[in-house]
TrEMBL record:
Family according to the record: Belongs to the kynureninase family.
Known catalytic reactions: 3-hydroxy-L-kynurenine + H2O = 3-hydroxyanthranilate + L-alanine + H(+); L-kynurenine + H2O = anthranilate + L-alanine + H(+)
Quaternary structure annotation from Swiss-Prot or TrEMBL: Homodimer.
GO biological process, one term: L-kynurenine catabolic process
Main location per the UniProt record: cytoplasm
Cellular component, GO, one term: cytoplasm
Cofactor(s) required, per the database record: pyridoxal 5'-phosphate
Residues that hold pyridoxal 5'-phosphate according to the record: L150, T151, F178, P179, S180, D181, S234, D263, H266, Y288, W318, N346
Domain of life: Eukaryota
UniProt-recorded name of the protein: Kynureninase
Amino acid sequence: MSEEPPQPETEATCVCTQDKVLEFLNKMSAESGIADLTDPGLAEFLSESDALKVIRDKFHYPKAGSFPDVDASLVDPESDGIYLCGNSLGLMPKATERIMTEQLDKWSKLGVFGHLSGDIPWAHADELAVTEVGHLVGAKPEEIAVCNGLTINIHVLLSAFYKPTETRHKILLESKAFPSDHYAIESQIRLKGRNVEESMVCLEPRESEETLRTEDIIDYIEKHGDEIAVVFFSGIQYYTGQLFDIKNITEAGHRKGCLVGWDLAHAYCNVPLHLHWWDVDFACWCSYKYGCTGAGGIAGLFVHERFKNDKRDRMLGWWSHKMSSRFVMNNELDLDEGAAGYRISNPPIHLIVPLLGSLEVYRSVRLDDLRSRSCYLTGYLEYLVNTFFGVGSDKLATKITISIITPSDFHQRGCQLSLKFSVPIDLIYKELVKRGVAVDKRYPNVIRVAPVHLYNNYVDIRRFIQALIDSCLAVENNV
Ligand SMILES: *Cc1c(COP(=O)(O)O)cnc(C)c1O
């Protein structure tokens, strides 16, 4: 039996507030003698004074000039790019390059002998990661497997955990779930011989609201839970950036006898998680967003230890078989325990390497400390957006206004803020790109901005705001 993961110290994942952020900015303003909180000089001072600023050096941080369509008359190509898109694809840790070169070298010299030799025996490479990945999501090592892609893991888990009956056959999700999750759920319902119209329930926010209220989700489960087989939500909503109350929604599902699973694509490595203590049944995530493992990086899955030996039917392969007798090859399955028994194929070493590179970074800093840093970074971004673009502000920089659709409550968000513009964003986005900004657009009028706690700083945020002001002015003056 392995040790239990540490229990969460507080109910909430975050104790920060916008007042605390303002208090901090005012304190730093007094210390630096820079009175105006929006002064770019203050951003420099904040970045310099930041105890975690060194983590940025563990990454290859791109220069503005290396991005496509950058206009050298608007931004110095030698300056750092304004990369606020780590919610889509995280930057590359320097460690990854080193480990990858070592493993390619090993392959060239050892061929098949590499499976069982060296610091990273390929056949066991995934097992080297499960303890630390477990720390990042608050789980025991035997509750974790790293394998496949995220959507595949949704299929793997629903194949095992969605067992509809005549009376309990529904899957509850949100109406704006990520398309891949939506399709995976639709297909799982059909594969189990049921129809989507009857068995798929998509919860919508109240009219004229952008995000779902926790109380409405819980209320729905309380009223209709008897028909729900599985509640499956995202931990952080990819579009709005809303962080759901994983603990209480899981509890509500359990009170009604539902299984509760989570897609943690945007939550993994973004906010501290306590999957074991929150009693989550199963969960999965991709690792290339805040986990920084590169496009299509290896995904993860969590299965609570209460299912450790239940041998439920699932999708199987030779890697579901216990290591001790896997190579006897007599076709009599001896199912591995816990999450390991949900693996199918042998681990892809070229995808495990970037995970090990990422874990090397996450070993050097506590996720709780990153979370706290993240709150101040997003709080600063929120302050600047509201000051220069908020309806009713007396410092409006342009005629274009912005409302932030991400909840203002820090308990309900991570690194990302989703900005909704009063005009279509096409032209503004193009102007941003010319100025070396990498952010993510969702038509017609939302831009998602994610200062990542690992490698972004206050200067990136202040430079983004300047680029945004300049872009909006350029668009206004051309129309
Ligand atoms: C990023 C993301 C995905 C991507 O799925 P892949 O299988 O990795 O291509 C799926 N679901 C959600 C909620 C995401 O945020």
